[in-house]
Amino acid sequence: MPSPVPPTGLPDLPVTFRPTRTRIVLLSIGVALLAVLTVMSLALPSLSTEDRASFIGTGLLVFGVLTLLSRPKVVATRDGVTVVNLTTKRRLAWAEIVRVNLRAGDAWVHLDLSDGTSLPAMGIQPGVSKAQAVADARALRALAETFGTGTSAT
Questions:
Q1: How far apart are CA 55 and CA 64, in angstroms?
Q2: Could you say which of 57, 82, 121, 122 is the most buried, measured as most Cβ atoms within 10 Å of its Cβ?
Q3: Is 2.30.29 the CATH number for 72-152?
Q4: Is the dihedral of CA 54, 29, 122, 76 positive or negative?
């Protein structure tokens, strides 16, 4: 069965929702910290090889954690939604999404699923840009209502 054509006002599919500013800040801090620790370890002549490796290893560890924190995203296609959180990735058909929620005070969007569970979608978060998060949540809600059987709640 062919996928329905989205009505006007919906984003073109596929679309990726992610907290871009947060991602830029986290990755920039990670690169800067790794560079500073590497330069410091090489510039201090009194450090042993083990100490230098410890400095660089610490920089790599912090960079890895910040990279992990910058990972969340929500990708919507005609077939469904892929939710990528810190350490998990889950693929959902549109029919599985009953409701898209972003209530006041929520750290990110929550998807109510047809199996009675709720899935956090950390790719849409109002932390840095509340207006962008609200617009993204509304777009995802409209897509879920168009392609699935979902309803919305604010």
A1: 14
A2: 121
A3: yes
A4: negative
